[in-house]
Write a structure and sequence with these properties.
5-stranded antiparallel beta sheet, single chain, two-stranded antiparallel sheet, 10 helices, 349 residues, 9 strands, alpha+beta
């Protein structure tokens, strides 16, 4: 029962050997080879394994850095709602090891076009009703996306994008103006009806399964939060931008079809649009900071290329709201030019 990779056992790290040892106990006397898969922005490592011509995904999710309890609880909660999520074949929460069913390699992000995006996004929006109604057992409590939570995320923009990445310093009055903008964004989040939200619901976390059903992954950090968060995460994707004329009818579909099932009170179109817009700004502010943090703290440089898109959303949407004029001006006239200058200097080198 020697465990092997694409080579010898010596090619594995100590952690991979531990994972292999655990897998050998799950599948008894099988010879197992780990085939690394591309990971995500977290600290988890993914491998594909093949057992008797059946493919599985092995996961090493470091206990101190991963929300494994949340993954287990939410996998059951979402599965109970009829959402297609990977099945947990086996797990060892103490070591952070999982063996999951294999959803394949077909990300929704890889197949979307202007012609089919409405079809697929409507399917994804329909899933949000089930996400919102998910309930976990008494052993796990879904975190609340409260004021402190939101402010912590917004601070990532200041600490990692402005200070660490671009080395931009704000004067005391500028800092006050930025904090005032952040207060508007926090108030917007707190004003909305609360539902269970995936918190990273976009086309890279949605799989197209063999039966054309959509499968959902990376759901372990779900929280109780604003009703528009997941739909704006989907429609104003941090990795791909669609024309507004394609987005508007899809958000209207959410408001008219899904939202009434999630909240009893009715809100006018202007209110829904404001919630959607400002929640998107809050997410893009956070995301731009996280992309910088992934580079400087975690040595993941691939996300730097996504920062300009997140900033473009901020510039364009903030322009519609006078109370966010400072954030609009800051990003348009200081952040984006500094980023462009940095990228130009890097390319020259």
């Amino acid at each position: 029962m020697l465990l092997e990779k694409e080579g010898s056992l010596a090619d594995y790290s100590l952690q991979e050997k531990a994972l292999l040892q655990w897998l050998s106990q799950v599948f008894l006397d099988e010879n197992i080879a780990l085939v690394p898969m591309s990971g995500d922005a977290g600290f988890r490592c993914y491998y594909r394994i093949n057992i008797k011509n059946q493919s599985f995904v092995a996961v090493d999710a470091p206990v101190e850095l991963s929300n494994n309890q949340g993954f287990i609880a939410l996998q059951k909660a979402f599965n109970d709602q009829g959402i297609a999520v990977p099945e947990i074949i086996a797990c060892d929460p103490q070591q952070g090891f999982f063996c999951l069913s294999d959803f394949g390699d077909h990300l929704l992000a890889d197949v979307l076009t202007l012609e089919n995006m409405s079809h697929y996004y409507r399917q994804a929006i329909d899933i949000l009703e089930s996400v919102a109604h998910a309930t976990v057992d008494e052993h796990y409590q879904i975190p609340v996306y409260d004021e402190a939570f939101v402010l912590t995320e917004l601070t990532i923009f200041k600490d990692w994008l402005l200070k660490q990445h671009l080395q931009l310093t704000l004067s005391a009055p500028e800092q006050q103006k930025l904090d005032a903008c952040f207060e508007v964004l926090v108030d917007n989040v707190m004003a909305q009806p609360r539902v269970v939200m995936h918190r990273d619901f976009h086309s890279r976390n949605i799989m197209i399964l063999k039966d054309e059903q959509l499968g959902i992954i990376d759901f372990q950090d779900a929280v109780m939060g604003p009703i528009t968060y997941d739909v704006v995460s989907l429609l104003r994707d941090c990795y791909r931008r669609w024309p507004e004329q394609n987005i508007a009818p899809l958000f209207h579909y959410f408001v008219e079809t899904i939202a009434p099932k999630l909240c009893q009170q009715k809100f006018n179109e202007t209110q829904w649009q404001r919630w959607f817009d400002l929640t998107g700004i809050q997410r893009h502010v956070k995301a731009s900071g996280i992309f910088a943090r992934l580079y400087h703290r975690d040595q993941k440089c691939g996300y730097l290329q996504d920062i300009p898109l997140t900033l473009s959303y901020i510039v364009d949407i903030c322009a519609k709201y006078p109370e966010l004029e400072f954030l609009h001006t800051l990003v348009k006239h200081r952040v984006l030019p500094a980023l462009l200058q940095m990228n130009t200097s890097t390319n020259r080198e």
